[in-house]
Design a protein that fits this description.
By secondary structure, the protein is an alpha/beta fold. The chain is built from 15 helices and 17 strands. Helix 2 packs parallel to helix 3 and helix 6 runs parallel beside helix 8. Bound molecules: iron/sulfur cluster.
């Protein structure tokens, strides 16, 4: 067991599976579409990259993200899970998560996941409205979401569902019915993301050409406010700007990111943060495979932040959490005093009712959550 603090040495690991059946209109993740013949070589490469750990590492969270990990067939999934567990030893009560899509799930895959230690499934539902799924260019229909949930629930209790709000043409009534439908599935955790138009994505191109009209900011805020009201009323804790959990079901993995702690990362496009250095692997599948299979590094970007930069980054990230920033822990983690960095700006945001300062902690108020990005920007 490594004795370095968790912001230096990882207690969490991310493994990226880039393969997808199709490119959704809004997506700018590192993905590979129509290249399924490379999946086995990709698993060979992951095995080699994991081997660079030297010795198996104890972690409290492993996250298989994508892409679409559930796009792999049963045999490939099994190989992946065995491989990951060979190098990453999950602590007792640890979390082993996988992202899945409704259209690539079946009962046999759920069995493989459960048999190989998966403890949490994160399902990309996004909406229950066919017209909105179509705008987002998702492959599945609403019925497939319910069926996937049923299969998962036969073996795995901890289920998170992702929803997107702010799609072109989405009304408050659409959104409320999405929230009702998702609550009826009784997930333990929900992530609600506002749609963003990332440069170069099909959706961004359509907006640029005037083929669709994005929702205005006020309408988006209204949807966000509805989500907070409805989900809190239903007993979910709003523990991060975009995330809600039943008691005891916060995502262990994401809490590592939001504490700005260290994590391992493996796979095409994967990022890692180890011993204060941030690194990102190449987003190009062929380059990733060529380099790793030749025994070379696939790192494409690498930087080591200075103390002040690291402290500012920690401030920006930790403020996203409901518990905000704890001054004492912040000092320990960054070597800097929160008030030296942003004391005056914090006081101003407290006067505006956007932050609350409780002495030991500083956190967003409810109004502050609506404009979190602007508040964080002012503190920086
Ligand atoms: S399934 Fe997920 S990762 Fe794949 S293209 Fe769609 S949004 Fe992106």
């Amino acid at each position: 067991m490594n004795v370095l603090p968790p912001w230096q040495w990882p207690r969490a690991a991310y493994i990226h599976i880039p393969f997808c059946a199709h490119h959704c209109g809004y997506c700018d993740f590192a993905i590979a579409v129509g290249q399924d013949e490379q999946i086995d070589a990709y698993l060979d490469a992951l095995a080699l990259e994991l081997q660079t750990l030297g010795t198996p590492q104890a972690v409290r969270s492993i996250f298989l993200g994508g892409g679409t990990p559930s796009h792999l067939n049963c045999a490939q999934l099994e190989r992946l899970l065995v491989l990951v567990r060979r190098w990453l030893l999950l602590e007792a009560q640890g979390e082993f998560s996988i992202e899945v899509n409704p259209d690539s799930m079946d009962e046999a895959k759920v069995k493989v996941l459960a048999d190989h230690g998966i403890t949490r499934v994160s399902l990309g539902a996004q909406s229950f409205h066919p017209h909105l799924l179509q705008v987002l260019e998702r492959l599945h229909g609403p019925d497939q979401v319910a069926r996937a949930v049923e299969w998962v629930r036969q073996r795995i209790v901890n289920l998170s569902v992702d929803l997107i709000f702010g799609a072109p043409g989405q009304t408050v009534a659409d959104w409320k019915s999405d929230l009702d439908r998702v609550l009826a599935l009784e997930p333990t955790h929900l992530s609600t993301y506002g749609l963003t138009y990332e440069k170069g994505t099909p959706l961004w191109k359509q907006r640029e050409r005037g083929l669709l009209v994005a929702l205005d900011e006020e309408s988006e805020w209204q949807l966000y406010r509805e989500a907070i009201d409805i989900l809190e009323e239903a007993g979910f804790e709003h523990y991060e700007i975009s995330n809600f959990a039943r008691a005891g079901y916060r995502s262990v993995h994401n809490q590592v990111y939001w504490a700005n702690e260290a994590y391992f990362g493996f796979g095409m496009g994967a990022a890692r943060y180890v011993l204060g250095r941030r690194e990102t692997n190449t987003r190009d599948l062929r380059t990733y495979l060529r380099k790793i299979l030749a025994g070379e590094s696939a790192i494409f970007q690498s930087e080591e932040l200075g103390e002040e930069e690291r402290a500012r980054e920690t401030l920006a990230i930790q403020l996203r959490r409901a518990e905000g920033i704890a001054r004492c822990r912040f000092r320990l983690q960054t070597g800097r005093e929160l008030d030296e960095l942003a004391g005056e700006a914090i006081r101003r945001q407290v006067e505006l009712g956007l932050l609350r300062d409780e002495g030991e902690t500083v956190a967003l108020t409810r109004s502050g959550k609506y404009v979190a990005d602007a508040v964080i920007e002012r503190l920086l």
